[in-house]
Design goal:
homodimer, about 450 residues, alpha/beta, TIM Barrel, 4-stranded parallel sheet, 15 helices, 17 strands, about 35% helix, globular
Chain lengths: ~450, ~450
């Protein structure tokens, strides 16, 4: 049982519908939830087992990472300045052919540690050897939705193994872990396999996390091959009949917007990946107009280089203003709504995370506001969006437990993790010319 | 006299023409310059008065900020989500009508402190009450080109006062300070005033730092009013006959490229400002094709929110790839060249700063490479461009002197500066509806 008081912080919340900051608040936590938020001094400190003095810090809901390949931190900075097909076919998929379970275990820990340092408390992860990722999540203390990625060429047997994985971990780690299915993408599966995934998801009460319409070339290829867009294809195959996370959807077309708006889906947006990979930018303003939920994501560190939602948030604001050439759009409050509410919706946890108020899960990130980049202290939302760095994150709680305090990680062994990952670099960075786990066609 | 050895660092340099990193190097500094860079162990530690152990850190040339309004950190986060004309006419110029010399003194110190923390050693600053900025530069230990901004409506008398300023500070602070003239922009001056500035700059042996073609609307207005672009106007008025820094030039047209390529000029690029203000993006690929030098800049913190060149460098890479939709352009090495060589060229100091080799000034920034965001350590250039945060800057030297070590500022009183700036916020954030220092017409 946790019984904790966070004292003297400024609190970002959506009370009244719009993001705003209340200064000098205390947050009371009972077990895994927020039990009260009151003006400092109202709650009796003596009634709490533990107190955290957050004097002057900004408390925000834990950042939500709606799409990642966390263990890919193993390959960080190893595939720079290449085309997308080179990235997949000459770098990532050859390198991933060297991957062992133990590599994933340590890579997952590195990624979790990095995310906690960056104030992220919840992640939707899409990778391989997912038992190892689940172990890392359990240990790290984060919240996660996990899927085991599967390609059509691996067949029904592998798909069934990924369903076994969901059974092993569903609801584990004090309920912090949920598990879904993870067919990789329409371009690495086929309509029959997608239908099979949808049927098995339905039967097992699972959602699906899948890459869709990442580039114009992918959409063109789908139109040529099937006469429909990837969004239409996942709809036609029944994927959208279960809860879904759609990664990227950078190039939806025509009818796609209505399809997305009328299903229980949310889109993960990783602008750094899109810019860096020359993929263009998603039509986020049209998503807003159509009421299609979207949140922020880091994608994998081989395309995005970091696991930092604060960076994605800033990029989304900047490119949103750029897209319209209108500096008055993408206002501070709107970015807060996308980051926290949008992220919670994409995770299908809108009543549980993404806001700070009594009854919500105690996933809380405390951010320092005493640096030179926050001087003068005049506007906490502008500071958070345009000035703060993830290194300003001081303390992180998830599910009522403290995962980092004063930038010291409490659940993971940082030095050991770094040593383990570094020791694997030489082997993992080798690219076998004829070994790759799949082929990128577009 | 300084006599200093920086030990065991990785060194970014352009030896051989292309940016690369040599590991395990020692850098020897004699007085204000680099005297040697050798493999660790080659130079005898006993021969040096002071040693800095930079084990595993990345040494880069001090970051160069080619256009700023440093004291505007005073107004940080006070003008968000507004149009450019609102930004000038309703926020900045009314707020600046409250500005005193002492405000500028403390604002300049805050900005210098922030820049040093972010690894910046050299800045081209364009503001008011510039004696106060010069005092702050002298104290901070940075390198700076300073101009006192002047509008046409202030007349020749004020222009002459800004020339007096150049005489008071030219070559001061051990040669770290140079001074030029700073007519604000073609849209706040007029051809006669620009000609006067050019004549007086010629006569006094001074360069000119001026805003040019920041937006399409400004260029359209100039075409309507004068039949020529702002770039043509500064050429026709003789401004380009002296050395110049042109801030922004986001919208050059037609003949402008040839004009820029054939004069002794350099362009300052602040992508965060352009994106955030809905100004579009400058044609940086065309600048490259035309051989027009450009470097990075933070602009003022009221549009850019931070004084962080590492952030601008990353944005330039990301948006450069976005502009072409080609992930193979804007390669790591090219960004290094723009950031360091480009910045040095814009500052008109290409033989002195922007590289690490014997004979260059000892302006050096040491960046940690032991964080989670640099694990595994595989590619220092990719780390620097896509992973590192300015908070990873550990130690900063300028002109052979240590300004920050282990993130502790050695020349400025951080707590006092923060207190002084915060105490001025209430007065400075007041906007007098009918008081503004100039009027923005576009």
């Amino acid at each position: 049982m946790t019984n904790l008081l966070i004292k003297k912080c400024d609190v970002l919340s959506f009370a009244g519908g719009k993001a705003h900051v209340e200064t000098k608040q205390d947050i009371a936590i009972q077990d895994e939830s927020i039990s009260a938020i009151e003006k400092t001094g109202t709650l009796q400190e003596g009634n709490f087992e533990q107190c955290i003095d957050a004097g002057g810090m900004l408390a925000v809901p834990g950042f939500i990472n709606t799409h990642a390949h966390v263990p890919m931190v193993l390959f960080r900075n190893l595939a720079e300045d290449v085309t997308i097909s080179e990235w997949f076919n000459d770098y990532i998929w050859p390198m991933e052919s060297n991957l062992t379970e133990e590599d994933v275990y340590w890579g997952a820990q590195l990624g979790m540690a990095e995310m906690i340092e960056n104030g992220i408390t919840c992640v939707a992860d899409h990778y391989f050897h997912m038992d190892e990722v689940a172990k890392a999540v359990e240990m790290a203390g984060m919240r996660a939705n996990l899927v085991w990625a599967v390609f059509a060429h691996q067949g029904e047997e592998m798909l069934d193994k990924t369903i076994d994985f969901t059974r092993r971990w569903q609801g584990k780690a004090d309920g912090r872990i949920t598990t879904w299915l993870g067919p990789h993408a329409p371009y690495t599966t086929n309509p029959d396999f997608l239908k099979l995934c949808a049927q098995k998801a339905q039967k097992n009460g699972l959602g699906i996390h899948i890459h869709v319409s990442e580039t114009a070339a992918q959409v063109d290829l789908s139109l040529k091959e099937y006469g429909i867009t990837p969004v239409q294809q996942v709809r036609d195959c029944g994927i959208l009949d279960v809860p879904t996370i759609l990664a990227h959807v950078v190039d939806p077309r025509g009818e796609d917007f209505d399809i997305l708006a009328s299903h229980d889906t949310g889109i993960a947006q990783a602008p750094k990946t899109y810019l860096k990979s020359g993929m263009g930018l998603a039509p986020i303003h049209q998503y807003r107009e159509h009421g299609i939920p979207f949140g922020l994501a880091t994608d994998g560190a081989v395309s995005n280089n970091t696991l930092d939602i604060m960076e994605q948030m800033r990029l989304l604001a900047l490119f949103g203003k750029y897209q319209t050439m209108d500096s008055t759009c993408m206002k501070l409050e709107e970015l807060m709504e996308i980051t926290f509410h949008g992220g919670a919706k994409v995770m299908h946890l809108p009543e549980k995370i993404g806001d700070l108020k009594p009854g919500m899960l105690a996933d809380i990130t405390l951010i320092r506001q005493d640096g030179l980049n926050s001087t003068p202290k005049a506007n906490s939302l502008a500071y958070l969006l345009y000035c703060a760095k993830s290194s300003d994150v001081d303390t992180v709680l998830c599910n009522g437990k403290v995962l980092m305090q004063g930038r010291k990680l409490l659940t993971l062994d940082k030095a050991r993790i770094q040593q383990e990952v570094q020791s694997r670099l030489q082997r993992l960075s080798q690219r076998m010319p004829n070994e790759r786990i799949a082929f990128y066609p577009a």
